[in-house]
Structure formats: C-alpha cells, structure tokens
Description:
Helix content: 10-25%
Number of helices: 7
Distance between the termini: 76 Å
Order of helices and strands: HHEEEEEEHHHHEEEHEEE
Strand content: 35-45%
Radius of gyration: 24 Å
Amino acid sequence: MTKKHFIKLVGLVLALLLIVSAGGCSLNSYSVEELKAIYPKVFENSLSEELYYWKETVNASDHTSWKTCNVFAEIDKKYEVIRDENGELANMKIDVLEEYNKKNVYKALCGKSSGNDGDKNYLFENDFDDAGNAVNYRKSEMTPQDYVNSDSFKNKYSLAAMLKEFEYLTVDDMIFDIDNDLMEHKGKTIKFSFAVTDEYLERYKAEFGEDSVFSGSKYATMEFAYDRFASIVIYAEEKLGGGISADKEIYKLETVYYGPIVNMPSYDAQPWVNA
C-alpha cells in the first residue's frame, strides 16, 4: 500500500469514528431494542444446559451467605457431554455447599461411590456445628439423576431456581440512566447496567409473596456470554457518614457451564460407614 493510499484509509477511519461518536454511541454499543430481542433467548439457552456451576453471594444488612452448586459430568474433546448406554450423562456428580455468616452450614455430594461391595450411587449430606466441624452425617442410595430431579434440589439448587427472578424480569422493567456506558458488546460478551422500576418491585411481591432481590438496590450490572447468562451484581448505596456514600455489593450470582471435578467419598469408609 502506498503512503498516499494509507493516508486516505486513515482519513476514512477517523471520519467514521467521528460520525459514530457524534451519534452518541461507540463501535461496541448495544441498543435497548437489541437487548429486548436477545434477553429471553439468553435464559432459554442457559436453562437448556444440563451442566453448570453457580456461585451466589448475599451481603444483607443482617447476614451474609454464600452458596455453590456444581453439576458435573464427563465431556469429550469437543466439550460435548458423554452419555452411557442408557442415554444418561456419564459419571454425573453433584456438589453443593452452603455458608452462613462466614461459617459452613451444609454440604451435599451425590454420585457414584466406590466401596467393598462395588460401585453404588449415594447422596451424602452433612451439617456443621458452630465451631465449623462437620456433623450429622447421613447417606441415601440415590442416583445423581434422581437427585437433580427431586423437589429438594429443583426448588433450591437448580439453575432454574437461581435464575427464576432474572428470567421473570423484562427489559421493560429496567431503567437505563445509570451512566454513559449502558451496554457494551465485545465479542461474545454483553454487559449492561440498569435499575428496576418501582412497579416491578410491587408486581414481584404481589406475584410471589416476597421481596425482590432488587429491593433496596441502587442499580445492577448483568453480563451475558456466548448467548447465555453469566453474572449479575446488585448494588445498594451505603452511607459512610459526613455526607459520603459508596456503592455496596449486596448480591452476586456467577455462572459457568462446566465446573471443577467432583470427588466422591467411599460409602464404607469413615465417617460415612455408619451414616
């Protein structure tokens, strides 16, 4: 390319940038109308996934809590799930952990466990005392497929349960006047900030009989990756005194669609042999 042609090309690029900036957006901008089109599809895609790992953090005024759930199975080199001869996910395992006020309170593991009588599927559960020691060990013969289909799992640990409110929320319930970078579209990632309307908070409480997770919030930031839900962080305004305030993170949910390897205990080894 000659120097003359190069200068012309640079001039065209600069002119394009000036036109875009004059229109009040950037090359990575994303419109509300585009978000309306993709928003329902993102949750549909997420809820169709069989494997997922989520982490929820709550910083409420009277407590903190932290929960994780990992639904694991074997995948091949193309990152596709491997199924056994019955069509079920190969080597499926589930790992759940709950923490309250920085202390573990509950743990569950479900999957194939090895012992002297061969491999068996078990749900292992235990609680924790005030000192953080594991107590109340119990086990039940149960396949991981039966566990994820049980009401106790579906109502509390399934991805559908975790995404219930955010799927219920619509783009029309959002207020986009938080800052100048409302929506960013970079590659396979979409990130946007918003507040929710008072009408939404009232509707949610009337519909479900409980406060929305957005109640008392100032704004939230949500992120999608590869057309699936990735994270949401909800902020509230915290008064620091002297007329000073800061944004405090009160809720966070992060999701990926393949978590770490889950290791199962032996059903006839301590502390499970007599559980």
